Amino acid sequence: MSQYDPRTSTGIPTEPVGSLPRPTTLQAAYAAYDKGEISKAQLEGEQEEAVKDSVQRFEATGSPIISDGEQRWSSFATYPITDTLAGTGLAPMLGPGGQFFAIFADGHGRQLPRLERGPFEYRHYAAESLAKSIPYANRPMKQAVIAPSMLDLLYPLKEPVDGYSREDFEAAIVDECERDIRKAFEAGAARVSVDFTEGRLATREDPRNPWTGAGLLPHFIELNNRVMARFTAEERVNIGIHTCPGGDRDSVHSADVPYNNLLPEMFKINAGYFLIQLASERDRDPVYQSISENLRDDAEGVAQMAYIGTCVTQSPRPESAQEICDQLVRAANFIDRQRIGSTDDCGFSPFSIDEKPNHGSPDYARDVAFQKITNRVTGTRMAAEKLGVS
């Protein structure tokens, strides 16, 4: 595993969540591939061009660590099991008609496939994309992976899968998540964060979406800790957990859920750091206070870090560097300044097809995302200077 110093160049560490809006040309290529109008090689060519552009523009922001923007992925949740959001290349043990991962505030939903038989295994690992992207990069790269708790939703909520118990399935997803993380580090990732978007949604109890009312949050925490238990404390320093109220088509799915329903439980995950949506919260101070009260000094040998979300990824207005500085300085009134980092509220576009209606187009949203990242890096450096963190 690489030795990465997250405080390099900014004092207070700063890190992206992962995804960037895909260019309009790439989104069109995904749609054409699903229709059989272009080949897999042609789609991969468009993905490669989008990755090159993402890496070049990411490095130009001054970010000390970058990602490839997940340009080769169907989505943050489905990259291990399918090639596209429409289901082209779906893993053979899965079929259509599974549970909705989320129903968003604008009324649209994102539906998962359904486990039909065992055994379960990934078709793709995140490291496969990372290995292709690293040769383009001159800075450390991070990799996001999906949580076992999200994949747990593939198993039908009430009826068992014939010949394949939930216990056997959950053992498989824990194994696969561990393998996904290890492969990412082996491919050269400096950091790996686990997307836990389902955490806040698990406390919502949306009658349109039955799994959210099933009291699954404690079980989700347990599944993630089964993965963390496979890694040493030294390794977990560079393994993070990301939480947010979702983000798709400039809409969210659980921003109305009180954060205190999640945070005391989430920090029980024995990860080294947490990427926490916060810029879009209406009242940040109680969240800062909750983070301070629940961030653990000793999570099985690791002192946890809190990376504060300072950029609203669903908004086309770039936060100024001064705004970002002010958010971090305010957070330091509640949280030990040596335990604070900065991040974006969410991935900028967790799904490969994302029209970005508030922005007008995915291409403009892409420009805005890089401006927000640039300002986050500058604002974080300003906050470090003001707080005397080096």
SSE blueprint and pairings:
Elements lengths: L23 H11 L5 H21 L33 E2 L4 E4 L5 E3 L2 E2 L10 H8 L8 E5 L1 H4 L14 H21 L4 E5 L2 H4 L15 H12 L4 H4 L2 E5 L19 H4 L6 E4 L7 H11 L10 E5 L11 H11 L8 E4 L18 H26 L3
Parallel strand pairs: 5-6, 6-7, 7-8, 8-9, 9-10
Antiparallel strand pairs: 1-4, 2-3
Helix pairs in contact: 1-2, 3-5, 5-7, 11-12
Descriptive overview:
The chain has 390 residues and is α/β, with parallel strands linked by helices. It has a single domain, classed as TIM Barrel, CATH 3.20.20.210. It is 35% helix and 10% strand. The protein is built from 12 helices and 10 strands. It has helices at 24-34, 40-60, 126-133, 148-151, 166-186, 198-201, 217-228, 233-236, 263-266, 284-294, 321-331, 362-387; strands at 94-95, 100-103, 109-111, 114-115, 142-146, 191-195, 239-243, 273-276, 305-309, 340-343. The strands form 3 sheets. It has a 6-stranded parallel sheet. A hairpin with a 5-residue loop joins strand 2 and strand 3. The chain is globular and about 60 Å long. The protein starts with 23 loop residues before the first helix and ends with a helix.
The strand line-up of the biggest sheet is 5-6-7-8-9-10
From the N-terminal CA to the C-terminal CA, the straight-line distance is: 24 Å
CATH architecture: Alpha-Beta Barrel
Structural class label: alpha/beta
Helix content range of the residues, please? 25-40%
Residue share in β-strands:
5-15%
Low-confidence stretches: none
Shape: globular
The biggest beta sheet reads: 6 strands, parallel
